[in-house]
Design goal:
The protein is 12% helix and 55% strand. It is mostly beta strands and 411 residues long.
Length: 411
């Protein structure tokens, strides 16, 4: 079931993009006859990237405790992407010039296929311009968010050294900054730096995570009529288009599954058999400062049936695995308050949060937490919420898959 959930995330990101664009088109162009539909003169883009990277040694497996008994520090990926840029004459096209969003496919290698596999990633991406340096050169960014498939997972008998990942499917997150050199109206070259993270979100154990830091070089081919391409390249920041600052309210309900384990005082570790459910609710008033930026506070309530099991040991079963009494509800429920900041673009918004559990009982629900979430528009107010939560800045907690609704969503 967990595999189906992760695959569903990626397919829904890709499959709903066109529908959400149409929904935003009708909402933003209503009563504005002077601006075109954002889908009238769409610019299509195909791009290919090569991304060599340094594999950070976050685990002893990468430092040499593997079947080859050699350090692993190299990572390489090849990417093929298809994206669209909205009509530069439309309202959304003018509000978000130089923005491309679409889907990508990547083949990755850690140069140890026997123990790690050759994973393939499928992801949504979005790129846009940060600053124009010259008429033909700009500084851009791009993020990728999706899932990677085909990992060789840990197995006590056949793959005992791989204590990095225990999932054939892992979440994939990437952020890059690069220079974009416009060779001609239809061709451009890109080169820059990036970082990537692969993880199963604590849904399986072990889950050390995989992090890379590296470079990227690519080529982009644009398709569209010459006039539309020229308008897109010459687009200016939308200072003339009005924006009304206001307060909107986001309500999110999410769920997840996770595993539970801990390190014992004597140095060993305990892994609790099975997986546990997590259900949460966020209520997040946000002040819309700018078309690109929202910020506010979020009231976060969560029930985690794996929390505080350690203090309720009930012995062992016939196989020697630990058994536990179910902790009382108050030890598995917590409420926190987090500061949230959200970067707003067409179709997608990226939400960051740092919070503290002010209502809790027990060590597992105590302390601060961090949230990174991608919101994908399904309709004008309804969105898919896909996120990842950390505890105390370093401990992976769980993935977050849910739906959100935005109230008072002004244009």
């Amino acid at each position: 079931m967990r595999t189906i959930h992760k695959l569903w995330i990626v397919l829904l990101l890709a499959g709903q993009a066109a529908n959400s664009l149409r929904a935003q088109s009708s909402a933003t162009t209503a009563g504005t006859d002077s601006l075109a539909s954002p889908l009238r003169n769409v610019i299509h883009r195909l791009s290919a990237d090569v991304r060599p990277a340094y594999l950070t040694p976050t685990n002893y497996f990468f430092k040499g405790e593997n079947a080859r008994q050699q350090p692993m520090n190299a990572f390489l990926s090849g990417h093929l992407k298809y994206g669209i840029q909205l009509d530069p004459d439309s309202r959304i096209g003018r509000l978000y010039p130089h923005t491309t969003q679409g889907i990508g496919l990547a083949v990755n290698t850690l140069f140890n296929a026997e123990e790690m596999g050759t994973p393939v990633a499928l992801y949504a991406f979005q790129s846009s311009r940060i600053a124009s340096l010259t008429p033909r050169l700009s500084l851009d960014y791009e993020w990728n968010f999706g899932a990677s498939f085909g990992w060789k997972k840990y197995d006590e008998d056949s793959n005992p050294y791989n204590l990095v990942t225990s999932s054939r499917i892992n979440a994939y997150i990437n952020l890059g900054f690069f220079l974009n050199w416009q060779l001609s109206p239809r061709w451009s070259l890109t080169a820059g730096v990036e970082g990537s993270h692969f993880s199963n979100g604590n849904s399986h154990y072990p889950n050390a995570g995989i992090n890379t830091i590296g470079a990227r070089i690519g080529v982009v081919r644009s398709f569209g009529d010459a006039q539309t391409l020229a308008k897109a390249e010459a687009a200016l920041p939308p200072a003339a288009l009005p924006f009304c600052p206001h307060v909107s309210y986001d309500l999110v309900i999410y769920g997840a599954t996770k595993i539970r384990g801990w390190v014992e005082d004597y140095g060993g570790s305990t892994l609790v058999p099975g997986s546990f459910g997590v259900v949460g609710l966020n209520f997040n008033p946000m002040y819309n400062f700018h078309r690109l930026l929202r910020a506010g506070l979020s009231l976060d309530a969560q029930y985690d049936e794996s929390a505080n099991l350690r203090g309720h040991l009930a012995g062992t079963d016939e196989y020697g695995d630990p058994k536990f009494y179910r902790p009382p509800f108050k030890e598995q429920f917590n409420v926190g308050l987090s500061a949230r900041c959200e970067f707003v673009m067409p179709v997608f918004s990226i939400n960051f949060g740092i919070g503290y559990h002010f209502l809790h009982k027990g060590p597992d629900t105590k302390g601060c937490y961090q949230v990174l979430a991608l919101k994908t528009s399904l309709t004008r107010n309804l969105y898919l919420h896909t996120g990842y939560q950390l505890q105390n800045f370093h401990d992976p907690n769980h993935l977050m898959l849910g739906l959100g609704w935005r109230f008072n969503n002004k244009r």
